[in-house]
Amino acid sequence: MSDAKLLTPKTSIHTQSPRTKRRNAAETRFKVFGMIAISIGLLMLVALMGTILSKGIGAFQQSFITMEVELLEAKLDKKGNRNLSDIKKVTTFGYTPLIKNAFAKAVKDQGIETDLKTKDMAKMLSKSAAAQLRNVVIDNPQKIGQTIKFRFLANSRIDGYLKGRVSRESIANDKNVSVAQLDFADQLLKAGVLKKTFNIDFIIGADASDQRPEAAGIGVAMMGSLFMMLVVLGLSLPIGVAASIYLEEFAPKNWITDVIEVNISNLAAVPSIVFGILGLAVFINYMHLPQSAPLVGGLVLTLMTLPTIIISTRASLKSVPPSIRDAALGVGASKMQSVFHHVLPLAAPGILTGTIIGLGQALGETAPLLLIGMIGFIASNMPTTIGEGLLSPNSAMPAQIYEWAKRADPAFYERAWGGIIILLVFLVSMNTLAVILRRRFERRW
Amino acid sequence: MPLTWLVLILLTLVGLGFILGRRRALRSANGDARLLHSRPHFYGANVALSTLVPSLGVLVIWLLLQPVLIDRSVSHMIPPEMVPADTTLGLVMSDVRRVAEGLDVAVARGVMSERDSNTLRTELTDLRARLGEVGVALGQDVRPEVLSAAQSYRRLSHAGTMGMTLVVLAVAIAGFGFSLIQSRKEFRARNVVERGILSLLILAASLAILTTVGIVLSMLFETINFFGLHDWRDFFFGNTWAPNFRGESELSILPLLWGTIYISLIALFVAVPVGLFAAIYLSEYAGPKTRSFAKPLLEILAGIPTIVYGLFALLTVGPMLAGLFGQGGALGVSWMAGATSVLTAGLVMGIMLIPFVSSLSDDIINAVPQSMRDGSLGLGATQSETIRQVVLPAALPGIVGAVLLATSRAVGETMIVVMGAGAIAKFSANPFDSMTTITTRIVSQLTGDGDFSSPETLVAFALGLSLFVLTLGLNVLALYIVRTYREQYE
Q: What ranges does the record list as Polar residues composition bias (chain A) (predicted)?
């Protein structure tokens, strides 16, 4: 019976031994670590998105001061003959008195009591206010002598005050704005002269000089990005598909093919800045293509996107079952016909998805664009023709964001965040399109 | 624009060729397609391809070579003693090009006749003023040798463009005629066309090699130039980075390499534990619901452009860290001088790398055979013991590969360090110091106004080549490790 005694468990199965407890605690700990890791990742995503939205949404609104401006004939057209070349001779300085008068009139009409001089009131407007007024007059000379309602951009400090970025405390050392001006802004706000509204010019407008953050827009850079993406799409899709077809369907198994394959997988991991150096050395220094041109940017991004497209295209060509090829060959198609008539159409959704994802990467890439000179200037000319769009200097969305971030003015930071919102909207819609395409057309064999 | 016209003419010829080739082949078979060797459209495609491909090839090669050849022959016209002491031949040549473009614009606007533009003399005309009228602003008065160089530049360009048009059209018409004559019913059009298409496919595939060769050569030449101007021992073994555009710069890669490695280490310190634990949780513990929700969300982090992370570092994380550790900060220590620091860039880069590490490790952990887990669990190990003692050791080589790939990404990352790391090159172990990296210096040396003959600019190419070699080495090593590991379980 001594054997039975040995078999008797020393501990009860109803209570845990210290060792089991330790092991179970370790198990729980391990699991919690995993959960913490996931939550850190998700938290970072939330923090990032929260920051972008909270800081960038302001860029889509802008403060405007709407006033009635009397276009005095005595100031703008002394001869009274509405001769355009004479009107053009009046510089923006000639328009400043009109703006001062408009402020004086607004103060009187609204019954605002203030000690602020009209000179300081006019400084509350954007530095481009007089130029905008002048452009309107030059476009419509018949309006001289009339009183028109005009919407002026408020300058970035006043705009920041309305958005809560600028406060009476924060402007203590700021010589661009005074407390009296903020008081006056409050009065204008109450009277409905100063208003914060949706700002379409941020989305479609051009960049502005670093003195006028309130007038800067991302529209021209968006066109630059668009032209770059056209180049990338037009070159990388055909070349990428052709290269993949060769490697996947025709290439003999030999060392040359191996070299090409290793090459492509390595190119996919080359830092993007290296492609920028290549672009600078080959396209600009050697071929003398114009600097800062979207064409050059597009070429560099094409080289960068090609490996991505080739890898995804090869994957979708590989997923077409060999029976399709065999059937085509069996009914007398040539190898080329079987590929182009059967395999390629069946792989098309996958190829398209990969291309869109590659384009998305190219759209957000910044580093190579810095080297080929798509920063450091004010992208203000909207291209009118395709040739101009490809060859004349332009910025691109990420480069424009970088440019704004460099200008070290909180008003430009707001625009940089706003630009990121637009960039992300593009990326999200491209990726959604890719997912939809994959869901709808992908075939499982 | 003559180039547009040339391309349009080519395309018309191609379309015409397709129709005529097809028709001629059909006619040779008396309209009965069954008598043809190939289907009729192959004959058309043959004519179209033999018209387009050779002529387009000539066009592209000509466009690539012409500027180089003209530049070379014109720069021979400018004697070295005519180049002012404070500039270089390259700058004089860009003056020449600018004057030539200005003359083109003036002729196009009708301000100047073609003959005038060729017979202009600087002694007789104030060219700067006349070009200013048509909106071409010149920085200084045009010197006579620059003007005559510009005039011959224009003459050569015109002759070149004219020659190009003629040659390309001749090639196109020759191809057109030859292949049209070939288009008879015995002609094996399909075989010819397919062979042609195959060679185009090969051409596309070899572009990948061409790119690599381009990368290496473009950087190699400039790097050799750089080492001609600057001692290579200082570059590799010096200890100071102090570019000075008046000469006597000390350009050593080591302080930059230290900054790069330090930032990458911090990034990996953030990304590897978080990414690895996330991958373990997702592949071993999470149910399908959590997995399908958390995995795509984490991968969004990988799809966000780096400029966004850069801005996040510059405007959010940097000021936040400065608020904690900086002077008058919340912790009462003043370790940090400004918002840019190694820690700022490293933390943000770590966030960027989390999904990279997690999705690679996820794949690798999933590749460990289920039988190994079952065996361990069957012996009574808890799940975490199974993971720590069976799954992870089995997946270790793959995870090392993933970490190496992440390192290569961190080393080559540009925007985050440009915006978050600062610009001071030094050896320091303090993570709150502002430091600089290889990629940051490449950007700053190449975005200035430096000309391409000073070591301060050329050093960027040497840095780029070092970066390329470094990341390539890491990638090859990582891929080798991952591949050997995968084969272990296949």
A: 9-18
Q: Which of residues 227-256 of B touch A (CB under 8 A)?
A: none
Q: How far is CA A149 from CA A102, A109, B15, B162, B341, in A?
A: 10, 14, 58, 57, 51
DSSP A286: I
Inside any domain, residue B208? no
**With an 8 Å Cβ cutoff, are B443 and A416 in contact?**
no
Burial string for A419-438 (b: 16+ CB within 10 Å, else e) reads bbebbbebbeebbeebeebb
pLDDT value for B240: 84
Residues B168 and B282 in one domain: no
CB within 8 Å: B414 and A272: yes
Q: Do B130 and B255 fall into the same domain?
A: no
> Is the per-residue pLDDT at B109 higher than 80?
no
Contact (Cβ atoms closer than 8 angstroms) between residue B312 and residue B301: no
Examine residue B236 and state whether it is found in any structural domain, yes or no.
no
In this complex, which of A243, A366, A417 lies closest to B306 when CB atoms are compared?
A366
Binary contact (A263, B209; C-beta < 8 A): yes
- The ipTM (two decimal places) reads 0.89
**N-to-C CA span, chain B:** 60
- The boundaries of the domain holding residue B13 are 2-187
Alpha-helical segments (H) within A57-94: 73-76, 84-89
* Domains parsed from chain A with CATH numbers: 57-198 (no CATH), 219-441 (1.10.3720.10)
Measured N-to-C along each axis, helices B288-303 and B342-367 cross at an angle, to the nearest 10 degrees, of: 140
Task: Report the chain A residue with the minimal C-alpha distance to residue B72.
Answer: A286
Residue of A nearest to B354 (CA): A41
* Structural domains counted in chain B: 2
**Where a domain ends, among B153, B187, B221?**
B187
Give pLDDT tens digits for B304-328.
999 999 999 999 998 888 888 887 7
Residue B149 and residue B19 share a domain = yes
Please check whether residues B260 and B147 belong to one and the same domain: no
Q: Is A63 helix (H, G, I), strand (E, B) or coil?
A: strand
What mean pLDDT is reported for chain B? Answer: 85
Query: Residue A184 pLDDT more than 90?
Result: no
Hey, are the CB atoms on B467 and A307 less than 8 Å from each other? Answer: no
Q: In the predicted model, is pLDDT for residue B37 greater than 60?
A: yes
pLDDT digits (tens, 9 = 90+) for B222-248: 899 888 888 888 888 888 888 877 767
Q: What is the DSSP letter of B73?
A: H
- What is the residue whose two structure tokens read 């995995």? B295
The whole-number pLDDT of residue A1 equals 47
pLDDT computed for residue B88 by the predictor: 64
| Min Cα–Cα distance to chain B from A112, Å | 39
Residues 377-406 of chain B whose Cβ lies under 8 A from any Cβ of chain A: 382-385, 387-388, 405
Interface list for A 78-97 with B (CB within 8 A): none
User: A37 to chain B: which residues are within 8 Å by CB?
Assistant: 273-278, 281
Chains A and B form CB pairs within 8 A to the count of: 252
- For residue B135, what pLDDT is reported? 66
Q: What is the mean pLDDT of residues B102-129?
A: 72
Contact status of B285 with chain A (Cβ, < 8 Å): yes
Is B371 found in the same domain as B288?
A: yes
Q: Is A37 on the interface with B (CB under 8 A)?
A: yes
pLDDT digits (tens, 9 = 90+) for A337-369: 999 999 999 999 889 999 999 999 999 999 999
- Domain membership flag for residue B219: no
